[in-house]
Design brief:
Radius of gyration: 17 Å
Number of helices: 0
Largest sheet: 4 strands, antiparallel
Number of strands: 13
CATH topology: Neuraminidase
CATH class: Mainly Beta
Helix content: under 10%
CATH architecture: 6 Propeller
CATH superfamily: TolB, C-terminal domain
């Protein structure tokens, strides 16, 4: 149970492997979780109260199977688990995530930015269909760690792996 703005929140979700960030879609406030998966199978999932993320690290013999052969959302074992909106099977590490928002972003307005290679994805109103494309300007530049929308409407990205030091980038509308 958590407290949010003085109210107790009794709904929760569970069954996630390694959450990296939560982003609220500006158009409707719906929350999406960005999480590390095993073997680079990272996911973006629309959250719903009481939802099961579908992660099961047990190999069937009671041993942890966090990488080899495991899937982030096991729909075979948990058929009613939250369905991922986006699976990044080659992301090499999920970052935090957030949405570009506002008319100044033009065709990026409403797109989520997430992942090691910074994928730009438009999530439909139901949260289940996603079309993702890598941002050509950002592909494999460095390892993206966090993405946050600032009060000025720009996105701020924490980067590591660029010489000479780690950096904070400000992304403005294209």
């Amino acid at each position: 149970m958590a407290c949010f703005e003085g109210r107790l929140i009794r709904e929760s979700t569970y069954g996630f492997r390694n959450p990296q960030g939560i982003a609220f879609r500006p158009s409707d406030g719906v929350p999406f979780l960005c999480e590390h998966g095993p073997n680079q199978d990272d996911e973006v999932t629309r959250l719903a109260p009481g939802g099961n993320g579908g992660w099961n690290p047990n190999d069937g013999a009671g041993k942890y199977n966090g990488y080899t052969g495991a899937v982030t959302t096991n729909l075979t074992l948990f058929p009613s688990a939250l369905k991922p909106s986006l699976v990044l099977s080659d992301s090499a590490g999920m970052s935090g995530c957030d949405f570009a928002s506002g008319t100044s972003w033009r065709n990026w307005d409403g797109r989520m930015l997430a992942g090691r290679r910074m994928v730009s994805a438009r999530i439909d109103a139901g949260g289940t269909a996603v079309v993702g494309t890598p941002s050509d300007a950002l592909v494999n530049q460095a390892q993206f760690r966090a993405v946050v929308r600032g009060p000025d409407g720009n996105l701020y990205v924490a980067i590591n792996g660029l010489a000479p030091n780690d950096q904070i980038w400000r992304l403005r509308s294209p």
